[in-house]
Amino acid sequence: MTKALCLISAIALAGCASTAMKQYVGESVTEAVMRLGPPENAFDLPDGRRAFQWHWGGGAVVVPGHTAATVAPVGSVAVVNATSTPAYVAESDGCLVTLIAKPVGNDYRVEEYRIPKRLVC
Length: 121
Hints:
- It is a single chain.
- By secondary structure, the protein is an alpha+beta fold.
- The chain has one domain (2-60, 89-114): Beta-lactamase Inhibitory Protein, Chain:B, domain 1, CATH 3.30.1450.
- It has 2 helices and 8 strands; from the N terminus they run H-H-E-E-E-E-E-E-E-E.
- It has helices at residues 2-22, 29-36, and strands at 41-44, 50-56, 59-63, 66-74, 77-85, 88-92, 95-104, 107-114.
- Strands 1-2-7-8 form a 4-stranded antiparallel β-sheet, with helices on one face.
- The longest helix has 21 residues, at 2-22.
- The two termini are 23 Å apart.
- Residues 1-22 form the signal peptide.
- This is Lipoprotein.
- Keywords: Signal.
């Protein structure tokens, strides 16, 4: 059950970056800078657009341990069988998310976003 909970959490976290970046499509890249801070990287693309990258996510979470026990009577004695899963720390380095924008006057308008195709961003 603990592994299933971790998998569900990881899938939910992966969706967060996609949802957050989608809101910037059609907006000035200045909106993203005001909310996310300055990008870690910015570079020109061959087609005249510009890519802006931010570090997204990362950190650690403690996944609690779990113990299950069964009791079986054997004559006048109760036999207890316990199975434990230890707690552990799940860590993620995060990832770089990219907004791709075209120049509009002195600004850039976001046309698309890209996030890595992996389970946890």
